[in-house]
Amino acid sequence: MRVIDHLTSDSGRTAFSFELLPPLKGNNITRVFDIIDRLREFDPKYINITSHRSTIEYQERPDGTIIKKKMRKRPGSVAIASAIQNKYGIIAVPHIICKGFTRDETEYALIDLNFLGVHDVLLLQGDAKGPDKSSDPTVVNMHATDLQQQVNDFNRGIYADGELFEANETPFSYGMACYPEKHESAPNMESDIRYAKMKVDNGASYLVTQMFFDNQKYYDFVARCRAEGINVPIIPGIKPIGKCSQLNVLPRVFRSDIPEPLAGELARCKSDSEAREIGVRWCIDQCRDLIAHGVPSIHFYTHMATESVARVAKEIY
To answer: Whole-prediction pTM value?
Structure first.
């Protein structure tokens, strides 16, 4: 089965899925397996693996000079996706991103994934922070829709340089991102929804949202998408708040508003443990409401929140 098969099944049950990060450089994959083992009891239908571009760090040498060094702190998602899929028999969905990668590097990743039997991916623009390899659109994909075109061409048997090859027997199926509170670079919501429709019209089989904490914003966004003819599953992306600092960090980094009732409770917290309890309680109520509204799946962002996600899932699945 593919991800889209689970999202469109008539089981009557809201599917559970989650996203995890590759281990930091120097750590091994057992940390990834520990997260999966903790959440496996809730029957995840698929597991996403994030991808990360290189970053620039400045290091001081013994002689006092400063050098600029490009580093990748986390390994790629290709090998980890294969390891997960082979160990657990759960669909692994590696992220394929534009930022920090050339079109050739993307092509190599697609070739490797095909060899490894991983045919579900999530296509994203990626974090804008970091070194860009080029601004030449023949060298890099500038936008997620450009990346989408490359994957579509690959599915048809066309390499990045235009050379033809015998198309793979199993094409890549993919989802893409959407933003109930608008992407930071979009001038307005109308523009953002037009891009979401472009993604779907060009082959995205589903959309998954940036995290949000106000369900009404998700419902309003879905209604506007449906009015524009976007009929694929739109999967809510959810994260339980777990630290006091996230009251300010999450809106700044992810452009996700914190509703006043939740913000007020978090502002009164004296410790992260108090914030974690509030975050779990809010997330349980949020998920119960989403399930009552018939969402096909809930996708959890587990970074720094695995235990909280497990507690939420215990209550709703």
So the answer is: 0.90
